[in-house]
């Protein structure tokens, strides 16, 4: 499978700049826009300069126009402008020292709706050139990165703790420990393998039985308040939860379902 990292460096045959290598789909689209602009005489990409403090910087585009003007254009996603604030300021100062104009192009200048729109456009455009499905390659590479991160980072970070239910030491992923043991006030486990059987319900979803102190419960179907013993079956003995319907209503519902299924089967046989 092709390396996605090589895919990021797009090459473009420009009639105004020759063959150029571009770092992103944003820069690729910018190069195509400059090629179609009749006022642009020529342009160059990724020229090196140094700031007054000696820091090494690269320009995105230095554009020469037919009227003699020169403009330094930085290509950045709108969302990441704060991240590149220092770099943009250095490029702006460099352009001022050369008496050039300075511009920052984002999605609005390039005709993209979002970063994902830019990626989709580049995948389609480049697939028309070399016939590769870059969208599929991107998904496969993302899957590989996730698996690599899991095996190298998450799977190696284990934690031991004392289970208060079975009074045994358990070892598990720190991710699972932080998500389940720390966050949940209670931890339910099986003694043989210490697996989580379920999370605690959210507070506003907990159903409170107002008759629990009397040993009774209201049936959801018949609405009668009956003794729990002999009338209700446990739904989960580990958690102590009961079925919502009493045994009589559950039996009646099962009988009705059986009769309906039997009648349907008899009708199909007759036909």
Question: What can you tell me about this protein's structure?
Answer:
The chain is an alpha+beta fold. The protein folds into three domains: 132 residues, Trna Endonuclease, Chain: A, domain 1, CATH 3.40.1350; 46 residues, no CATH class; 56 residues. 38% of the residues lie in helices and 23% in strands. The strands form six sheets. It has a four-stranded mixed β-sheet, sandwiched between helices. A two-stranded antiparallel sheet has the order 1-2. β13 and β14 form a beta hairpin. α2 crosses α5. The longest helix is centred in the last third of the chain and has 24 residues. The radius of gyration is 33 Å and the shape is elongated. It starts with a helix and ends with a helix. 10% of the residues are buried. The N terminus is likely disordered.
Could you name the key traits of this structure?
single chain; alpha+beta; Trna Endonuclease, Chain: A, domain 1; 4-stranded mixed β-sheet; 38% helix; elongated; disordered N terminus
The count of strands amounts to: 14
Q: Would you state the CATH class of the largest domain? A: Alpha Beta
Give the overall form. Answer: elongated
Q: Fill in the CATH topology of the largest domain.
A: Trna Endonuclease, Chain: A, domain 1
Mean pLDDT: 84
CATH architecture of the largest domain: 3-Layer(aba) Sandwich
Question: How many angstroms does the end-to-end distance come to?
Answer: 57 Å
Helical fraction equals 25-40%
How much of the sequence lies in strands comes to 15-25%
- How many helical elements? 8
Contiguous uncertain segments of 5+ residues: 1-8
The largest sheet is: 4 strands, mixed
Biggest sheet strand line-up: 3-6-7-8
Number of domains: 3
**Whole-number radius of gyration?**
33 Å
The chain-level structural class is alpha+beta
Element-level helix/strand string: HEEHEEEEEHEHHHEEHEEEEH
